[in-house]
Design brief:
281 residues, mainly alpha, 4-stranded mixed sheet, elongated
């Protein structure tokens, strides 16, 4: 799994450089390829080393210290130690919809975020299941490829928005170009997310979380509550970053469904129930 993720990371970074070179050629001609290469290289460094900060900025995450939430730090530390992982940094996001995600380029640079809605409304044993799921992504090194794909998809989809904004009305050449680019780039960004992120990673993270908690039904109960919460409460964050969450958020954006990478909750619960039955034998 780590080899596959490393290969996908390399392909993503290469695709970003190629895209920048293509855009440079389209706008500046042959000499623009060189500028595209330079910009793409800089963008790669930025995405690789700061993708976690970009994700947290997009989600509105604020880093918290142990003195603020000692019980949460104790829970995460206990699970991380059991998983053989270093303690991740902990963030709280302001969204009312319950959810969580992990990001960072490696286990040593990992960050784990939970929303305000989850902290306020989830019992501790269900929160344990969700945290174990996110620690599984850190253990399997899923978060780098997920965050890179989200950052790159976000940059691609925002390119059209920027042109539309600076172009003013759509009858302005820049605004019209931005509208056309949105038709082309938004599906491209969504396709990039789907190609980079396999749905099987969620099943693998669920299974590992069940083992880590010692009871898969902790995550089963959490997924049921997460599903109900996200069916009622929209999450106003960029759709390109929704692939990072434990469950697919509800969004008012028309683009959100394009970026869906999560398997159905019912199938995830069924897999966990099968795991629980095996563990009882």
């Amino acid at each position: 799994m780590r080899l596959v993720n490393n290969l996908k990371t390399t392909l993503l970074l290469g695709a970003l450089i190629g895209l920048c070179m293509l855009i440079g050629h389209l706008f500046l001609g042959p000499q623009g390829v060189f500028f595209g290469l330079l910009f793409g290289g800089f963008a790669n460094l930025l995405a690789f080393f700061y993708s976690d900060r970009i994700a947290m900025l997009a989600m509105g995450g604020r880093e918290v210290q142990r003195a603020e939430l000692p019980w949460l730090f104790d829970l995460v530390e206990q699970l991380a130690t059991r998983a053989g992982l270093p303690m991740p940094r902990i963030f709280v996001c302001p969204q009312a919809a319950p959810n969580a995600f992990a990001t960072g380029r490696s286990p040593r640079h990992a960050a784990l975020a939970v929303t305000r809605g989850m902290l306020e409304n989830f019992p501790e044993h269900e929160l344990e299941g969700v945290i174990a799921h996110e620690l599984a992504h850190i253990k399997h090194r899923d978060m780098l490829i997920s965050t890179l794909a989200a950052v790159m998809a976000g940059l691609i989809s925002y390119a059209g928005y920027m042109l539309m904004f600076f172009g003013g009305r759509r009858d302005n050449p820049l605004g019209a170009l931005g509208a056309i680019l949105m038709i082309v780039l938004a599906p491209l960004a969504a396709t990039l997310i789907r190609l980079a992120i396999s749905r099987s990673r969620e099943y693998a993270a669920d299974a590992y979380a069940g083992e880590l908690c010692g009871d898969p039904y902790k995550l089963v109960a959490a997924l049921q509550r997460l599903s109900r919460g996200n069916e009622r409460i929209p999450t106003e964050t960029p759709p390109a970053f929704h692939s990072l969450y434990t469950v697919q958020p509800l969004s008012r954006s028309e683009l959100a469904s394009w970026f869906s990478t999560h398997p159905p909750i019912a199938k995830r619960i069924a897999a966990l129930q099968t795991q629980a039955a095996r563990m009882r034998q």
